[in-house]
Design goal:
This protein is an all-beta fold. The chain has no helices and ten strands.
Amino acid sequence: QVQLVESGGGLAQPGGSLRLSCAASGFTFSTSAMSWARQAPGKGLEWVSGIYSDGSVTYYADSVKGRFTISRDNAKNTVYLQMNTLKPEDTALYYCANDLRGLGSRGQGTQVTVSS
């Protein structure tokens, strides 16, 4: 079955950086678009970024454009989210999903907290 395991979250200061990873198994990763979504406390799920199966095209929510970068390594069945210039409003539980818009199967998430 589909398994997605996110890691790399933690506590960061405003302006800091974190790199999230998502290890995938149970489906053909190399032919699947992937995405990241997040859910802040008391809020709904927010799509963050998506990437085509071959990595040729990427999409970003306006709230993270210019600060976050999505990438993937099909040889390692892993998708990444490099997060720079973090803001307190980036605090959320971050999930990866096996589709472009964050609506597919998701993992358990990794917590990102941005605070001084």
